Prior knowledge:
It is a single chain. The protein is of the alpha+beta class and about 80 residues long. The protein has one domain (about 1-70). It has two helices and two strands. It has helices at about 20-35, 60-70; strands at about 1-5, 10-15. It has a two-stranded antiparallel ribbon with strand order 1-2. The longest helix is centred in the middle third of the chain and has 14 residues, at about 20-35. The radius of gyration is 14 Å and the shape is globular. The termini are far apart.
Amino acid sequence: IYVFGHLGDGNLHYQVRTVDPAAAYDIxxxxxxxxxGSVSAEHGIGVDKKEWLHLVRSDAExxxxxxxxAALDPNNIL
Length: 78
């Protein structure tokens, strides 16, 4: 496991090398959620982390994110 990032603001990035990345990230993100952290990518949630967003955001928050995405990127190109 490699941990790097912006330690000053608590924004850490985890790189896990394993034969089962989904299981490893499930463990990492559940731990992050239990500690009150958040799941995100460098510039938003990204496609790789969508699966775990529900651990740290409510259904209402996710719905609001989807509405903002649709309003700001109606052609879904970003």
